[in-house]
């Protein structure tokens, strides 16, 4: 059945004028002129072929037809307003919930967030930290950033950066050549952390000194504390190079064994395979890829200056199905 509807602007003008019993107040509410309300009401009266108001020089009153039409029109406009508000709430979100490992968030993500905010000042990023495997069924976040040795297939994901994990320590450890070969670790403290993706025993084996043991060990719950301990000269720690490159360039930390035993992982931004936030997720992932390329370029340039060859591949592009878990 084809609906026979009156002019909707005229209906809206009538409803406001009838509710206030005033063309002037209706004009103020709808931000139009008194004449515009008068013309719209007259148009509706012509459509019905009967008057809805009685006009006099001193008073405006509703006719019987106008009084019976008002509650129906008001209810219909209220339902239309509610339906429209619901649709607005279902639009693409203007906030993006991002979950990332704590140390990664503090030392890499947060220092770069202003770049994304300049691109999309309308988007609010809500950061939370976690090292757990992404669980999008719980609906706690839209994007999960994790480091992984390979990409799972249970969600969508984009690889945006590689990391190279290697031993670093305070530069004072090199005074007098005290720490130049893997065997020298027997005179130093090996700092580890519960969430480490690369344990010391594995590095010792990769370096060809699996039978050696550090003089002491110092263990923390999270990478952030272990790294801070290394910055204070308490020992040697295995951490991603991109997290400490600035400290190395500044001469505070060093990589005493060079690329020996270095281990590579990738970082993924994963997300639900189907999401209303996908357009915003895609923009965020594109930004992450650019930041990842910039970080990798800085690392590669520094590595070449040291005679290293890290052989970092190019990142993937959207959309790619993958996923990941990771350390902090």
Briefly say what this structure is.
It comes from Variovorax beijingensis. The protein is an alpha/beta fold.
Task: Walk me through this protein's architecture.
- Residues 296-328 are annotated as: Disordered.
- Belongs to the LysR transcriptional regulatory family.
- The chain has 328 residues and is α/β, with parallel strands linked by helices.
- The chain has 2 domains: 8-89, Arc Repressor Mutant, subunit A, CATH 1.10.10; 95-328, D-Maltodextrin-Binding Protein, domain 2 (3-Layer(aba) Sandwich), CATH 3.40.190.290.
- It contains 9 helices and 11 strands.
- It has helices at 8-20, 23-30, 34-48, 64-89, 102-119, 200-206, 223-231, 241-249, 278-305; strands at 53-55, 60-62, 95-100, 124-129, 143-148, 156-170, 189-193, 216-220, 236-240, 253-254, 263-271.
- The strands form 2 sheets. Strands 3, 4, 5, 6, 7, 8, 9, 10 and 11 form a 9-stranded mixed sheet that branches.
- Helix 6 (200-206) links the parallel strand 7 (189-193) and strand 8.
- Helix 1 packs across helix 4 (64-89) and helix 8 packs across helix 9 (278-305).
- The longest helix is centred in the C-terminal third of the chain and has 28 residues, at 278-305.
- The protein is rod-shaped, with a radius of gyration of 33 Å.
- The model is unreliable at 312-325 (pLDDT under 50).
